[in-house]
């Protein structure tokens, strides 16, 4: 039972890291889209 908060912290940290990665990927796609407007924003 004492390791439950640790697991919760690790889970929350994992979610935050995952969210940050997705935000970074979206920012990269937007930057690429701004540099090359003729490319689709899905790249």
Give the helix/strand layout.
Blueprint: H1 4-35
What is the straight-line distance between the termini? 45 Å
Helical residue percent?
Answer: over 70%
Question: What is the overall silhouette?
Answer: rod-shaped
Mean pLDDT: 83
- Oligomer state of the chains in this structure: single chain
Portion in strands: under 5%
User: From the alpha-carbon coordinates, what is the Rg to the nearest angstrom?
Assistant: 17 Å
Helices and strands, in order, run as: H
Poorly predicted parts: none
Largest sheet: none
Description:
This protein has 43 residues and is mainly α. It is 74% helix and 0% strand. The chain contains one helix and no strands. It is rod-shaped. The model has no long low-confidence stretch (mean pLDDT 83).
Task: Please summarize what this structure is.
By secondary structure, the chain is mainly α.
Using brief descriptors, characterize the structure shown:
mainly alpha
């Amino acid at each position: 039972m004492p390791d439950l908060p640790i697991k919760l912290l690790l889970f929350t940290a994992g979610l935050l890291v995952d969210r940050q990665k997705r935000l970074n990927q979206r920012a990269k796609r937007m930057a690429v889209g701004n540099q090359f407007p003729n490319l689709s924003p899905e790249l």
